[in-house]
Amino acid sequence: MNTSTVQEEPRFSVLGYITITRDRRTQLVVAIGGDDQAAGILQTLGGFVSAPGPRGPYHRQPHDLSLDRQRHGATAAAHGLLLAGFSVHLDPSLNTLSGHDGDRQAALRYLDQLTERARQAADDREIAAVLTEIAAPHEGLLPRIAQTLIATWAPWTQRLETAGKKPDLAEELMNTTSRLSSHAHVIATIRDKAATRPVPSASSPVSTALPATSRRTGPHANAHR
Fold this sequence. Notes:
Elements: E1 17-22, E2 29-32, H1 36-46, E3 49-51, E4 58-60, H2 67-83, E5 87-90, H3 103-120, H4 124-135, H5 141-162, H6 168-196, H7 212-215
Parallel strand pairs: 1-5
Antiparallel strand pairs: 1-2, 2-4, 3-4
């Protein structure tokens, strides 16, 4: 083997690498990198639109797409780009075909969907449905979090006491967990009230009757004015 041979390094084209991810501030799905061919794939398969950026143009999906449509569009665009020879980094939370997405990513998607449901709620019943997911006994998010916190501070307190140490931080966590449980109960009560409120009918008849003073006619119509 000739050790004097200069080893060549790969040459990378910046435009050949495309990142598809979610912007944390706006929650929009954005794509950075690529050329005109990539732009066409992003637009036709992923529903992306071009937009000007501080460091040059980029692509993003429209504002009004649901979370499911965002993920399906991002996944379709990523696979189309890969087939066209581009190198693509697709945020795992946007990949609908990932078989190893992980529990954390699934939980984050669930929270994103719940946030979108809350944002789009049109009446008290839909608000109540969101609050049910948050505060329902045993199965709601807050009761589940409280159970996790209990499983944290209870053995923590025991370990500290066994070691002869003051469990001040564990006790602070215990008190905070108790307050969280109380807040969950309050939210559940609000949920019950919202769920039982009558939904206004969109077809309620509107009275067209005129005021009595406007209905007087005839020669004595002005007698009482």
